[in-house]
Design goal:
Layout lengths: L35 H8 L4 H12 L8 H20 L4 H20 L4 H14 L14 H13 L5 H8 L35
Helix pairs in contact: 1-2, 1-4, 2-3, 3-4, 4-5, 4-7
Length: 204
């Protein structure tokens, strides 16, 4: 009876995906939140429900129905997506950048103590960086009319309810409760009224 051959280990090569080339200088933020393919999928969603479900998946939201902050985040991006379809004719690059801007403003409002003015300054910085052709730090993705529409849109939506976002969702520091024992001195026993003397008036 021949010796039973033991199974031989076979090395299976693991496919290595080629690294994606870095974004050109000045364009690093454009597809930093949603890739070009992700943005295209959002713009081509057949229904509102499909677009919302895609946003939940891309933003990593698993408790949309029960987490108020997650729901507000997804809805804010969803409304911004509808704005992009109309304002930018579904331009993929502009849409991806606009959604990034909305995401960053929402994060600032709900996780920091930044004032409305400080967050608005963040908006103008991002818009200036991506609407003026000044290589290598500034690129002209948004036109002047695009910037005007974005400011008007966010001014009448996000910034109009900025205080509500902060009150509802900003992180509240933990409350530390301490107990201290306060020593209270025993008051002196008053003199009995029977031993009181009448004060003589010194006036005229």
């Amino acid at each position: 009876m021949g010796k039973k051959e033991e199974p031989k280990e076979v090395a299976v090569p693991v496919p290595i995906e080629p690294e994606k080339p870095p974004a050109p200088t000045g364009y690093e933020l454009v597809f930093s939140l949603f890739s070009q393919d992700d943005t295209t999928a959002l713009l081509s969603a057949a229904t509102t429900a499909d677009a919302q479900a895609t946003l939940q998946r891309l933003l990593g939201v698993n408790h949309y129905a029960t987490n108020a902050r997650s729901r507000a985040h997804v809805d804010l991006c969803h409304y911004a997506l509808a704005f992009c379809k109309q304002a930018f004719a579904s331009d993929v690059q502009k849409t991806a950048l606009m959604l990034l801007v909305v995401h960053r403003l929402f994060t600032t409002a709900t996780t920091t103590e930044a004032t409305l003015s400080e967050t608005y300054h963040e908006l103008t910085t991002l818009l200036t960086q991506h609407s003026v052709e000044l290589p290598p730090t500034h690129v002209g993705i948004f036109s002047t009319s695009d910037v005007q529409r974005i400011v008007e849109y966010l001014g009448s939506t996000f910034f109009q309810h900025y205080a509500a976002y902060q009150v509802a969702f900003r992180c509240i520091p933990d409350v530390v409760r301490t107990t201290q024992h306060v020593v209270i001195e025993t008051p002196m026993t008053p003199t009995p009224l029977a031993g009181a003397t009448k004060l003589e008036s010194s006036g005229p």
